[in-house]
Amino acid sequence: MKEFQGKVAVITGAASGIGRALAEKSAQEGMKVVLADIEEQALMRVSRELEAAGASVLAVQMSRLCEHADYRFGSQSPSPTPV
């Protein structure tokens, strides 16, 4: 089994469904979790719950995550090909 303790998981859609389940499991495995979602209130609720359980959490609204990624890495997508 792979060791996840202390590693970082970046999880989109973390406020509900599969994303939330993945965030919970990652935290249980001892990972630091970066949570992102478009639903800010639900995101903050999940963040508080995971922190209360002892997890190391950073919650970021999805739009902010995209801004930071674009700032750090720039647009890497190729220009669209005209049809």
Description of the structure:
This protein has 83 residues and is of the alpha/beta class. The chain has one domain: NAD(P)-binding Rossmann-like Domain (Rossmann fold), CATH 3.40.50.720. It has helices at 17-28, 40-52, 62-73, and strands at 8-12, 32-37, 57-61. The protein has a three-stranded parallel beta sheet. The longest helix has 13 residues, at 40-52. The radius of gyration is 15 Å and the shape is globular. The chain starts with 7 loop residues before the first strand and ends in a 10-residue tail after the last helix.
In short:
The protein has 83 residues and is an alpha/beta fold. 45% of the residues lie in helices and 19% in strands.
Question: Layout of SSEs?
Answer:
Elements: E1 8-12, H1 17-28, E2 32-37, H2 40-52, E3 57-61, H3 62-73
Parallel strand pairs: 1-2, 2-3
Helix/strand order? EHEHEH
Main sheet: strands, sense, barrel: 3 strands, parallel
Main CATH class: Alpha Beta
Instruction: Give the end-to-end Cα distance, rounded to a whole number of Å.
Output: 48 Å
Whole-number count of domains: 1
Number of H/I helices = 3
Q: Within the CATH hierarchy, at the fold level, what is the topology?
A: Rossmann fold
